[in-house]
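S1.2 Input.
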Amino acid sequence: MRRICLFFCAILSAPAFAKVELPALFSDNMVLQQQANVPLWGKSKPNASVSVSPSWASQPYATAADAAGRWRITLPTPAAGGPHTITISDGSSLKLSNVMVGEVWLCSGQSNMEMPLAGWGKVNSYEQEIAQALYPNIRLLQVEKQASVAPQSSLKVQGGGWQVCSPATVAEFSATAYFFGRDLHKNLDNIPIGLINTSWGGTIAEAWTSAESLESMPDFAEAVGALKGKTNEELVEKYQKENKEWLDRFTAADGGLRGNAPLWATPDLDDSSWKTMAVPGLWERQGLENFDGVVWFRYSLDLPAGWKGKELELNLAEIDDNDITYFNGEQIGATNGHNMSRKYKVPGKLVKAGKNVITVRVMDTGVDGGFYGNAAQIQLKLANSKAAAISLAQEWKYKVAVDLHSLPPRPQSPDNPNRPSVLFNAMISPIAPFTIKGAIWYQGEANADRALQYRELLPLLIRDWRKQWGSDFSFYFVQLANFLGTPLEPPVSTWAALREAQLNTLHVSNTGMAVTIDIGEARDIHPKNKQDVGARLALSARANTYGQQVAYSGPLYSSYRIENNKIRISFTHADGGLKTKNGDKLRGFTIAGSDKKFYEAEATIEGGEVLVSSPSVAFPVAVRYAWADNPSDANLYNAAELPASPFRTEGNF
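S1.3 Output.
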């Protein structure tokens, strides 16, 4: 009885205060922007008096919660340094420890920003980079993926909050963000650097932009309006109904299916009328330009008698976007996602001596479609055997089944991050009050087929974010790297047009662009060299945000003038003259007359200019440089060894 009495007495004598609640942005190990008035906010009990006591201040700062318990206070921060503590109290106390004051950067975009050092990324020398990542004054905050139809006030983060940079914490963090922060840290006298990574692979720029701003663009007004005022439950119900109707229509349109039966996968199908296509290879480069939809592929091969009845391993490398794969008419695997490796087991019961047929139903929903990856990896072999594999990098037969452009757009799932404003609402809006020095952005691949629209969209996103923060902060972005096949003649290139849209965005104040046209990979949309990406972004910040006297951009096209049968190109960022990599002959230029037919050009460097001509063009009117998805011959640099941005002189010529 005495114990019970003591227990209740203890409860009654305890302070009747709820613990102060802070957003996930505020935790031990965080970095606050130096020499700024930074907001700090949270929740307490209604109308409570709240005091905030940073260890760098001589006295606490006081405020009061409103009727809902919400409070906000502004803290003047000192020069870079630490560690500090911050104690928040409304009668009960909460203490934040190991807090640093320094430079805070927001890092956002799609998969190339998300790409971690290890994990699925495995950047160049990743094991060594991770082992050497001992930077206690670099702090990392990883935002969890989340979408919302309405702006949110709370943020979900991994690991409970900010993490001290170490081999244990950096491995799954954004490689680009880390290398950017590391370069700043080293070149800004080792001051603390805070990196907030809020990125999501495969996402479109409009998903990261607020509905309010998107409404100003007619292209997005209807989609934004469809989300306004809706609850998630309402959207789920609507989606389920409309998606079933669309799938029924889509399946009915696929002549390769009868219900769920794969007619075009049967081994004895007469495919003599089917066309052929090289595998690996994206179909946009092989006769299906701008095609989105379903294409069936078939490959027949003879297997030796010794393989009969034995389990096989089929490796198809990577497919853009989704596939269903059959062996002798039976499904053996299916994968969704363009960056997923396809390795399927073939049960022995399906394997015959002599003729066998592999069928792959490929569905692409946008940009490029088909097979890509290392040709040496596309093979069929005995499972658990060292016997030689059979190469499948051959000419396959193919037949178009469904053109998505002939169908209405597929309804979007409420969980789909590729909807206007939904990532802004969940992964940007809750951060917006938190004081930052600037942002870095690595995105564009998902918008590559809408380059003209991107000319307006990316500047809109920048203005939108600055409006949310109430600050004209620095914004630096990565231009798309070289990717896909090298063309045999001057092409129509969606990636080149998107790079041009990014280049035009430099007209927005306080922006900078890291050119990466020399460090991409033809077969990998996620190039492994993220060290140079981070370093080039850091050069823009060092020069323009922090005032260091460093070259921060490669040559940028400025103007041209026609001189008889030649065109002279002038550049900015050509101080010290222009050069080629390793002193090679200058390449990558094409030239055209009024017939708009471009020819490979002779190009020579004259100081900070380039003189371009061709014996095939007597009266030139336009020049292009590195105007292709993967211009592998582009080799123009400035004295600082920074590559020139691709460009064209003719605009919409």
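S1.4 Remarks. Confidence is low (pLDDT under 50) at residues 1-17.
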